[in-house]
Amino acid sequence: GLLTRFQPSAPTLRTLSSSNTFSQNIPSSLWKLGRLNHVAIAVPDLEKAQSLYKDVLGARVSESVALPEHGVYTVFVELGNTKLELLHPLGEKSPIASFLQKNKTGGMHHICIEVDDIKAAMTELKEKKIRILSEEPKIGAHGKPVIFLHPKDCHGVLVELEQA
After folding, report:
1. Residue 3: what are its φ and ψ, rounded to 5°?
2. Closest CA relative to residue 159, chosen from 123, 121, 127
3. pTM of the full predicted structure?
4. Are the C-beta atoms of residues 82 and 130 closer than 8 Å to each other?
5. How many CB atoms sit inside 10 A of residue 115's CB?
């Protein structure tokens, strides 16, 4: 009767199930990409940037934290589904200082994606000829091991991987 017209037909179900072949062609890895942890933005004036996100946009904004090993001050802006990391140079040799020399008003610096096994990721990425910017992971702003992938191997984007 009338109800059978609204039930999905068998060919539609077969079509949907055949779309699973995409995932079957991906080789299995010993590690997995997780969620986007944050997008990092280099800023020439950290106080003004904090004020924009906190006072103008109404976001929760952390205090500034110095990370001498990375040559940066960091501030995290909490969003519903991820964070923004505001980066400001700490010292003359800061990678953010050189970034800001080229980009005077600041801009997107990197994206950070979580991984479930950073050592396995490093091994496999090296095998796939993706350059890693350090020999060993460093402890990042969240107190977890991080590595950075060369932007020339990642379509122009500096990618940070963080142990979840």
Report:
1. -65, -35
2. 121
3. 0.80
4. no
5. 23
Q: Which residues pair with 9 in a beta bridge?
A: none
Q: How far apart are CA 95 and CA 70, in angstroms?
A: 8
Stated length of the chain = 164
Angle subtended at Cα 40 by Cα 34 and Cα 43, rounded to the nearest 5 degrees = 175
Contacts of 139 (CB under 8 A, 6+ apart): 69, 145, 146
Rounded to the nearest 10 degrees, how much is the dihedral formed by the CA atoms of 56, 89, 42, 47? 0
Distance from C-alpha of 132 to C-alpha of 76, rounded to nearest angstrom: 25
Give Cα 68 distance to the centre of its chain.
21
Kindly state the DSSP code that residue 37 receives in the 8-state scheme: E
Domain residue limits, the chain = 33-163
Neighbouring C-beta atoms of residue 58, cutoff 10 Å: 8
pLDDT in tens, 86-138: 999 998 889 999 999 999 999 999 999 999 999 999 999 999 999 999 999 99
CATH architecture assignment, domain 33-163? Roll (3.10)
From the list 83, 103, 95, 73, the residue with the least C-alpha distance to 40 is: 83
CA dist 64 and 76 (Å) reads: 8
- The tokens for 1 are 């009767």
DSSP reduced 3-state for 43: coil
